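S1.2 Input.
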Amino acid sequence: MNDAVSEVELKHQLLEWIAQDCERVRALELALQCARIHSMPQWCLAAGFVRNLVWDRLHGFELSPLNDIDLIYFCPLDISPERDLAIETYLNQLAPELPWSVKNQARMHVRNQDMAYTSCVDAMAYWPELETAIGVSYQAVDTESDDQTQTCVGMKNHPASYDIELVAPFGLNSLFALKLSANPKRALPVFEYRVATKGWLTRYPLLECCRTS
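S1.3 Output.
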């Protein structure tokens, strides 16, 4: 099986797992509602929202509670922290029991001392672990069009006029291979600190830590 076919199969498996998880589907629906209200055409739920789901499944574990729901979006017109706070407040009003965290990726380059990011995908390409840089969102589907290249087909349990879209600048192979890989674009001590403090290797003993690409 070539890499292209393998990646397609992994994508379908991941999206199927997400569609089977009522809590994640609900979070996506609430995030979509928020994106409409707050004019966020480019957004996704990323990091542990996707990564931990795959690791739980591959370890045969019960799904971990959503202890952090990272909603990232890209809005270069307003990079104030107050905008993030307003969006987070809105989400907390919709679902106060969910642990929302909102970050506009158009301003995160300042904290990370990078060149300005151009999109969510570009920003995610600088995250410390390759397997963390994966997100999903709901996107509108043109039901009158035969072109399926922009959508993920074969999904269930989500609104008929929307589909789950995958955002993965490094692909899915290393995530499904149970690797925890340092991003060469970030300083290795940043990766080492996160590995030491997040407890991933204890929680997921099958992981292989890859400190060099």
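S1.4 Remarks. The first strand starts at residue 43 and ends at 46.
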